Model the fold of this input.
Amino acid sequence: MHNPLYQLAQNKYDAAQKILVAVDCIIFGFDDGVLKVLAFKRKVEPFCGSWSLIGSFVAENESTDEAAKRVLFEITGLKNIFMEELKTYSSVTRDPGARCISIGQYALISLSKKNKKLTETHGAEWLSIIDLPELVLDHQQMVADALERLRNKARFYPIGLELLPKKFTIPQLQSLYEELFQLLFDTRNFRKKLLSLNMLIQLDEKDKTSSKKGAYLYEFDYDKYNTLKNKGFNFSLFKS
Amino acid sequence: MHNPLYQLAQNKYDAAQKILVAVDCIIFGFDDGVLKVLAFKRKVEPFCGSWSLIGSFVAENESTDEAAKRVLFEITGLKNIFMEELKTYSSVTRDPGARCISIGQYALISLSKKNKKLTETHGAEWLSIIDLPELVLDHQQMVADALERLRNKARFYPIGLELLPKKFTIPQLQSLYEELFQLLFDTRNFRKKLLSLNMLIQLDEKDKTSSKKGAYLYEFDYDKYNTLKNKGFNFSLFKS
DNA sequence: GATAATAAATGTATAAAATACATTTATTAT
DNA sequence: ATAATAAATGTATTTTATACATTTATTATC
Done:
């Protein structure tokens, strides 16, 4: 690591102060029409019994993304889930335990019954975004910021789909958008707009869990989306 | 800082490894129809003579935003300029000098002649985004990421205006959008769309620097924008 | 003081997209 | 066979986007 070429610069590096760096994960799930966030009750002081997001310090030999993926895997047992850096929380006084910078990372999980159980065996709980209890440190702010980001991004990118199973119905997607944006959409217009994008692949299966008639299952055509995205297309299901 | 209540947690904090944290600033300016980024030639080893963004280590007693503002002030002599966190660069191998995490922050400056001179007295230079020379470390990637963010954000928020003087003309704004998105707009439709938002305040002054007839100067009505923004309005001047 | 030169400003017709709105359909349970 | 339930569908109207060419205000020059 310490090449003699870097001698001059080395003084600069040596003079600088090192700081604790952590990641905190804001993990969203869509549970039967309700948007939830994963949290756990701290079992040690300080703040024992308080709700907290899941986090970890960043080690010397890992990037912040790697640290966040490690945390996500430890708590959910899942890999390859949607995750994106939110922002840095670096107020000098944010953590009374020590000066510590935290990188917020938000993640989106499709909450099948299996996944829901997995997370709960790890001692975490899914809390509804509405009526969220108080969280430790600046974790409340992190959730608020992540929610805002999720809304802004879901407005113009198909990331909302990460909260649904790979195979989903149109009424499910509408319900997700209605919960996320706290709006009601006309079923005819929502469906028309969605199908006009020509990015849903209709399957021969129906989901009959919520009606006798059953609703057709669809998959999203990511290949087609990525091709068009590079040509300036943007995914949007409503205007105002 | 070290309250006995935090004793248990303290072990955890003490066990964690501290890391060098820096900020690097991607400062954009719009110079006579051309989008530029501020860089300087390193005067010390390593990478002496190579182009680099402007950065600094984050000190124990400042947040990352404060560090970035400090750097921006040192290099431009300006305060209150638009700045937003971009993302964290934390690859273990990104800096051969030492393990160091850097937070990219991008900023937008209105390049009056005064401001242009100010930055240049500090030894920095404005480089055109097109044909950008190689930059040290991952700074090239930072500029690419910042440009993408700028485009995505300027698409739906009026941040492009931060690159123009407070008083600007419609042809200036069109030229900015054309440069930023590498598109050409019809002057009639651009103006019509822009004015239909009802967010420009026309002044009684004209800017005659680029035509004999002169173009009317306008200011952006931020109060009106902020009010409507909270009601779901989004600023957008073109569709595809 | 007439003329040339220059970029700014303007209007209309057509096409596309968004919105508002009510009925029929497929299926299961009784 | 009937009732119950949510899924699926069509049309008319309004709004927004697009395509496209001429006139206007001003300065510099002859």
In short: Residues 169-171, 187-188, 191-192, 206, 210-216 of chain B lie near DNA strand C (CB under 10 Å from a C1'). Residues 1-5 of chain B have pLDDT under 50 and may be disordered. Residues 139-156 of chain B form the longest helix (18 residues).
